[in-house]
C-alpha cells in the first residue's frame, strides 16, 4: 500500500514538473485547484511471468486530498487525506489499514508531494530534474535508510504533464504508471466533492 500511494502521489504532482528549479516546482504544485485524469498501471513482480494490470481515474484537490478510483480489474475507490487512507464501501468510508503501523509517515510523505513541499521530499530523496519543459525527467534517489530499503530509484517523465512514472524497487520488482486525459481546474463530480 505504501508503494502504491507513493506512486499515486508522484503521478498527481504532474503539472508541477515543467519547472526547472525546486522553488518553481513547489510553487507550481500549489497552483491548480484540481487535477483529474485516467491512469493505467502495470506491476512487474519477479515471481510472475506477466505484469499485474490496473486502470481507472483519479481526482486530486491540493491541500485536501486524492480520490483514486480503480475500475479494472475490479472497482476499488480510495481517498487519501490528512486524516488517513480510507476505502469507499458503497455507503461509507472505512480505513482498510487501521492496524497498520507507520501509516502517519506514509501520509506525511504523500502530503509533502500534494502540497509541493520539496523540502519534505529532499529529506528522503535526492532530486535531479533534466531535459526541457517539452520533455523532462525527474529522478528521485533514496537517501534515507527507510527509502533505500524500498526503492532503488524512481523516474518520472512527461511534457506539460506527467506521462509516465516508474518505481524501481530494491528487490527487483517494478511498477510503471501511465497517465492520460489529464485536465486541471475542471468542475468536480458530486462524489469527488463530497469525498474530498
UniProtKB/TrEMBL annotation:
User: Signal peptide span per the entry?
Assistant: 1-19
Query: Any idea which UniProt keywords this protein has?
Result: Lipoprotein, Signal
Which InterPro entries does the record match to this protein? LolA/LolB/LppX (IPR029046), OM_lipoprot_carrier_LolA-like (IPR004564)
The source's superkingdom equals Bacteria
Protein name (record): Lipoprotein chaperone
Its ancestry begins with: Bacteria, Pseudomonadati, Pseudomonadota, Betaproteobacteria, Neisseriales
